[in-house]
Design goal:
binds FE2/S2 (inorganic) cluster; alpha+beta; 3 domains; 5-stranded mixed β-sheet; binds iron/sulfur cluster; single chain; Ubiquitin-like (UB roll); two-stranded antiparallel sheet; 260 residues
Length: 260
């Protein structure tokens, strides 16, 4: 927060429903009374802060809003996404700064999809003590410890699949006693999987070849010569794949389909 995440505004926004019960929360040590149904992110705004960093999608996807909080009667440090976590009475809240985690640079083309590659780029993963704090911290309910374990064992496909929902919030890294950057390991395994392990998609390769051989050029030229109304009509009248289509579906009008 402070000069990172939020900038105080001069005016404090009002709750739409002034009868809603208020709960006390503490933002950077200062007490505010906020409606009990607000997320931490909305409570920050309600308290008069303008979110300029540490806020992106507001929907639990971008991972920008990692937040740390604590309660006076508990020794536990709690973590969550500010846009997804609803306030609770007497939360002491602060947003964590961008986490300066180890981020290797590499040329994906030159890497092999093996455990040795992961070990060379992120040797600290071998310091994992198996405490499970990363898994308990993850707002996406990912078994972080397990994907790190799979990466250590060289199961790149397994680590890639298990880490697939990672939003790169850094909360696991913030809590790791072994000072690992789990999310960077996860994205490395997904890149290795995508580039070197996943089977090639035949239809994509065919489409790329068709583009390279300029087989769409004639159709594109026709489209570019049409006026807006004609384009709209063409678009609205197009055949649309039904929601419950069989596995194989193609339009009745095949003049735009290029067969190899
Ligand atoms: S928090 Fe760190 S040390 Fe603990 S299980 Fe996760 S990766 Fe291992
Ligand atoms: S694996 Fe780590 S960085 Fe990814 S969503 Fe979970 S806590 Fe956030
Ligand atoms: S703002 Fe994107 S995850 Fe919270």
């Amino acid at each position: 927060m402070g000069n990172r995440a939020v900038k105080p505004k001069k005016t404090v926004s009002k709750s739409k429903d002034s009868s809603e019960k208020r709960v006390p929360i503490f933002i950077m040590g200062k007490k505010y009374e906020v409606p009990e149904s607000l997320t931490i992110q909305k409570a920050l705004e309600y308290a008069g802060f303008q979110l300029i960093r540490g806020c992106g999608c507001r929907g639990g996807i971008c991972g920008a809003c990692g937040t740390v909080y604590r309660f006076p009667d508990s020794y536990r440090i709690e973590v969550g996404l500010a846009c997804q976590t609803v306030v609770e009475p007497n939360m002491y809240i602060t947003q964590i700064p961008f986490f300066p985690a180890n981020k290797a640079t590499y040329d994906l083309e030159k890497l092999e999809p093996t455990g040795s590659t992961v070990m060379a780029l992120y040797p600290e993963i071998f310091k994992c003590v198996g405490c499970g704090t990363c898994t308990r911290s993850c707002p996406m309910d990912i078994d972080v410890m397990e994907y790190i374990s799979l990466a250590i064992r060289g199961d790149i496909a397994g680590a890639a699949e298990l880490s697939f929902d990672c939003v790169m919030c850094g909360l696991c890294t913030a809590r790791c006693p072994a000072e690992e950057a789990q999310y960077n390991v996860g994205i490395l395994t997904r890149r290795l999987y995508g580039r070197h392990i996943a089977p090639r998609a035949k239809h994509v390769a065919e489409s790329v070849e068709n583009i390279q051989k300029k087989r769409f050029d004639k159709g594109l030229k026709t489209l570019k010569s049409m006026n807006l109304e004609s384009l709209k009509r063409l678009y609205n009248d197009r055949e649309i794949e039904p929601d419950m289509a069989d596995e194989f579906w193609e339009p009745e009008d095949k003049k735009y389909i290029i067969v190899q």
